[in-house]
Write a structure and sequence with these properties.
Largest sheet: 3 strands, mixed
Strand order of the largest sheet: 1-5-4
Order of helices and strands: HHHEEEEE
Radius of gyration: 26 Å
Strand content: 15-25%
Helix content: 25-40%
Structural class: alpha+beta
Number of helices: 3
CATH topology of the largest domain: Cytochrome C Oxidase, Chain F
Length: 118
């Protein structure tokens, strides 16, 4: 009885190894396989845009009232997080609205600018 069970287990495991190897060889290109928003993101990355949704951290400039830091958005408002000090363990969150520059607690100014969506 044990020999029959062992033989069945070995046959099943051999079958899965061979069938999974053939399935991997026939997988389409991820760009051809994707749909919707994922496909837009992959096409933007292929065309050379590394940050299509502006999700990467932006380096903060001088941020004065006359020359505020520009924050891109395709909406009328955006939630912004400012790390005021390099050693800070928290993030200062604030809402930015179109056309109204806003000052963070650390003294830097930020302004929302329109950027076309992907």
């Amino acid at each position: 009885m044990a020999a029959i069970a062992l033989r069945n287990v070995l046959q099943v495991s051999k079958r899965n190894v061979f069938s999974s190897a053939t399935k991997l060889a026939n997988m389409p290109d991820p760009v051809e396989h994707a749909t919707g928003l994922e496909k837009r993101e992959l096409l933007a990355i292929v065309s050379g845009i590394e940050n299509p949704f502006d999700m990467k951290v932006l380096k903060r400039g001088p941020g004065t009232k006359d020359c505020p830091n520009q924050v891109p958005s395709c909406f009328d408002a955006r939630l912004l997080g400012c790390v005021c000090n390099e050693d800070a363990t928290n993030i200062q969150w604030m809402w930015l609205h179109q056309g109204k520059p806003k000052r963070c607690h650390c003294g830097h100014w930020f302004q929302l600018v329109y950027k076309a969506p992907v």
